Automatic annotation (TrEMBL), chain A:
InterPro entries: MetI-like (IPR000515), MetI-like_sf (IPR035906)
Keywords, comma-separated and alphabetical: Cell membrane, Membrane, Transmembrane, Transmembrane helix, Transport
Name of the protein in its database record: Taurine transport system permease protein
Family: Belongs to the binding-protein-dependent transport system permease family.
GO biological process, one term: transmembrane transport
PANTHER family per the UniProt record, alphabetical: ALKANE SULFONATE ABC TRANSPORTER-RELATED, MEMBRANE SUBUNIT, TAURINE TRANSPORT SYSTEM PERMEASE PROTEIN TAUC
TrEMBL record, chain B:
UniProt GO MF annotations: ATP binding; ATP hydrolysis activity
Stated name of the protein: Taurine transport system ATP-binding protein
CDD domains reported for this sequence: ABC_NrtD_SsuB_transporters
Organism field: Streptosporangium subroseum
Record lineage: Bacteria, Bacillati, Actinomycetota, Actinomycetes, Streptosporangiales
Residue ranges constituting the ABC transporter domain according to the UniProt record: 28-258
Keyword terms of this UniProt record: ATP-binding, Nucleotide-binding, Transport
SUPFAM superfamilies named among the record's database cross-references: P-loop containing nucleoside triphosphate hydrolases (SSF52540)
One matching Pfam family: ABC_tran
């Protein structure tokens, strides 16, 4: 949450300097991947797998040593809960009447809707803030203020306003996701490279052309960083959003399990959130490479 | 076009303000222009007063030491800035960026989110060329600056010299009567620079477009220009205004550089730049 809070243009994104570097390279060939990249990739994978196994072993050792499954459940107990919460057993469907995957799916849907709304609103607000100076002066403190608030703090207000159903949860995630996108977009739009804007104007671009063809594409890398940050914040806020009337939902599941001291279910919920979070970030990374191939190159 | 007969073309030094109507209508008309940056005690007069007329079809090179205001003069002609006093006219009207002049900067200033072809295509779109015609003209324009099969490449996949060629193709796309170049080859290595100079000389001879080229290289000025104007140190004024009178076509670059007139011009302009 530390990146691009202010509107100072990022010195490393200064296009003139980078273009000069590219230009001075003259006729040299474009850089290629270093040899042996494939081998080191396998080795890295091996090291990661090994470290996970070591951690599991440590976990098992600590669990056996403490002998208190409500304090530290064993890996085996968590695995059993994974099976139990994913099947119908003794006439009970999963946990609290929903399978683990359903709890997770509902939460992911909330995160998706909240993030999309927050990103769209943040993008629009950021473009306006980056283009119109007086709006930036007025709105920036407000955005920074909201950004500094922990989502759980304003959730109470949202409950009073919107009740305890789906609406306050989506509002919470939207409000949490908006500021990072707005701030990243505003600073990138504000710091549009003068050289490229001038080049576009020299080609006959109108004001709107410049915004659409130069300012926005140029801001895309930073916007995307803001989006990844926003999704991360929405993700970490979903548990807060599900503290009240949160079942079905992974946060609700964890909260219920905590109430009944089902520590193994709590740990299972943490794993579900953590692993799906990593997967989502990986998907965003791939999307970023596809959408913004020029990032860091021009 | 000037006569290719070298022997008969005399080197003439003219007053900077002289209007040479015999060469056709003025593509650029700079009258009593002064340009001041900043205000009050910190104000710096970068340029002038300067008066210059560039006839249609000529290739004017502005030479001078760095900081002499030659780039400022080019920016005034491009319409990016208004002169503090005096007037600038291109094609008889006040210059507006994007209307009437293609511009090549020192850096290629290509848009990295577009492919090579996409950069040229965008320029065509801005001047209202319909889509089907753009697809036809993009490879045509790239060919004209000596690029083949690079339309689908990314900007960072081509060399600095190729990038500057794309920038020239992009500036030519608008079919503007005027081409402005601000030290476009300064950041390139010597070999690439020479090749681009040769190609630009040929492109300019083929298109017959009026060009204003800013450089600090005396050799580049003599090689490219049909006329060379030397500016003094800040504030830049016209120190020397000289018709080159070398043949624009028909000679190989080496043959051109071997001409005795070439050496004479180089010496004279070099002397003026140092004395300025």
């Amino acid at each position: 949450m530390t990146s691009s809070i202010s509107f100072q243009p990022d010195p490393s994104a200064e296009p003139g300097a980078q273009q000069a570097v590219t230009a001075s390279r003259g006729g040299s060939a474009p850089p290629t991947a270093p040899p042996g990249a494939g081998a080191s990739k396998y080795r890295r994978f091996g090291v990661r797998l090994l470290s996970i196994l070591v951690l599991l072993l440590l976990w098992q050792l600590v669990a056996s040593a403490t002998r208190n499954p409500s304090f530290i459940p064993s890996p085996r107990a968590v695995w059993d809960q994974l099976v139990l919460t994913s099947t119908v057993h003794d006439g009970i469907r999963g946990y609290s009447g929903h399978f683990l995957i359903e709890h997770l799916g509902i939460s992911l849907r909330r995160i998706l809707i909240g993030s999309v709304l927050g990103v769209v609103a943040g993008l629009a607000l950021g473009v306006v803030m980056g283009t119109v100076p007086w709006i930036r002066v007025v709105v920036e403190p407000l955005v920074t203020f909201v950004r500094a608030l922990p989502p759980l703090a304003y959730f109470s207000l949202l409950i009073i306003w919107f009740g305890i159903d789906e609406t306050p949860k989506l509002w919470l995630l939207t409000i949490a996701a908006l500021p990072p996108v707005a701030v990243a977009t505003a600073s990138a739009v504000y710091a549009a490279p003068a050289g490229l804007v001038e080049a576009a104007r020299a080609l006959g671009a109108t004001r709107w052309n410049v915004t659409r063809d130069i300012v926005l594409p140029n801001a895309l890398p930073e916007i995307f960083t803001g989006v990844r940050l926003a999704v991360g914040i929405a993700y970490s806020s979903v548990v807060a959003a599900e503290t009240i009337n949160g079942v079905p939902g992974i946060g609700g599941m964890i909260r219920d399990a905590q109430r009944y001291l089902q520590t193994d279910v709590v740990v299972l919920g943490l794993f579900a959130i953590g692993i799906s979070g990593l997967l989502i970030d990986a998907v965003l990374r791939v999307a970023e490479n596809k959408l913004i191939p020029w990032r860091g190159r021009a | 076009m000037r006569s290719p007969d070298v022997a008969s073309s005399a080197i003439q030094v003219a007053e900077g303000s002289a209007i040479r109507a015999e060469e056709g209508a003025a593509a650029v008309d700079v009258r009593g222009v002064e340009h001041v940056y900043g205000r009050g005690a910190g104000a710096v007069t970068a340029l002038g007063p300067v008066s210059l007329t560039v006839p249609e079809g000529s290739f004017l090179v502005l030479v001078g030491a760095s900081g002499c205001g030659k780039s400022t003069l080019l920016r005034l002609i491009a319409g990016f800035e208004r002169p503090t006093s005096g007037s600038v006219r291109t094609g008889g009207v006040e210059p507006v960026p994007g209307k009437g002049a293609g511009i090549v900067f020192q850096e290629p200033r290509l848009f990295p989110w577009k492919t090579v072809g996409g950069n040229v295509e965008l320029a065509l779109r801005y001047v209202g060329v319909p889509r089907h015609e753009r697809l036809r003209r993009v490879p045509e324009l790239l060919e004209r600056v000596g690029l083949h099969d690079v339309a689908d490449r990314r900007i960072w996949q081509i060399s600095g010299g190729q990038q500057q060629r794309v920038a020239i193709a992009r500036a030519l796309a608008g079919d503007n009567p005027l081409l402005l170049l601000d030290e476009p080859f300064a950041a390139l290595d010597a070999l690439t620079r020479e090749r681009l100079q040769e190609d630009l000389r040929q492109v300019s001879a083929e298109t017959g477009r009026t060009s204003v080229f800013v450089t600090h290289s005396v050799d580049e000025a003599v090689f490219l220009g049909s006329r060379v104007v030397v500016l003094t140190q800040r504030p830049g004024r016209v120190a020397l205004d000289i018709d080159v009178g070398l043949p624009r076509t028909g000679l190989e670059p080496d043959e051109l550089r071997a001409l005795p007139e070439y050496a004479t011009l180089r010496a004279e302009i070099g002397h003026a730049v140092r004395a300025a």
